Amino acid sequence: SCEFNNQSSWTYVEQKIYNSEVIVYYDFNQKKYIGNYPWTTATVDKWNEQSEQNYQEAIAICENNVEIFDRGVLTRLVKPRVTIRPKQSAHTGHLLTCYVRGFYPKEIEVTWRRNGHVVNGDQVSTSLMANGDWTYQIHKVLQYSPESGDHYSCHVHHKSLDSDIDHPWVPEGMPESERIRIIVGALGFAFGFVVLLAGVILRLRNAKAILDASGTGPRLMGAATA
């Protein structure tokens, strides 16, 4: 795709995305593909064997579409769509990912907020990704510690919006691991109480049996007879 600022300023953009991450991209200024991971090296080297041909094709694509783009794309505004998904694992802990998709132009601000305040640190953004339809997407990941009563929201500022989006997500109560720990603790306490009560009852019965056998236990006095 092409990123146009005006008819005299544009840049060819091509990205290969896997699992929401840019693994290979085309650097128009350097006239070559660049891989972000070692396992892409062989493919990138093969593509770069036709470096000049790739460069000329990029120029042709953008120059042929610049007038159409200037009339129909540069002036349009497309509002972003926002969704939030939670994730939990032993390695990463608790994560919230804010997916912001389908917006134009590409300039955008995305921040996580807790109880109305911007969360400092613990936020990671993916690179801005082109969708291939003149719109973009970006993901913002937050690592957090769930606490009862906390309210999280993904705050989005974009030129297309009349007012900023503040998309809420509220933790669904206590974490599952914490609930299990409390349930196990409660069951253990109940079991211990039952065992203790049974022991007390058995001890009292044994004591009564010993007293009855020795004849020293308490006796009721009958009424006197004439």
UniProtKB/TrEMBL annotation:
| All residue ranges annotated as the Ig-like domain in the record | 80-166
- Record bears the keyword GTP-binding: no
Q: Which GO terms describe its cellular component?
A: MHC class II protein complex
Database matches in SMART domains? IGc1 (SM00407)
State the source organism's domain of life: Eukaryota
Q: Where do transmembrane segments lie in this chain?
A: 182-202
Pfam family of the protein (one): C1-set
- PANTHER family membership: HLA CLASS II HISTOCOMPATIBILITY ANTIGEN, DRB1 BETA CHAIN (PTHR19944:SF99), MHC CLASS II-RELATED (PTHR19944)
Q: What is this protein called?
A: MHC class IIB antigen
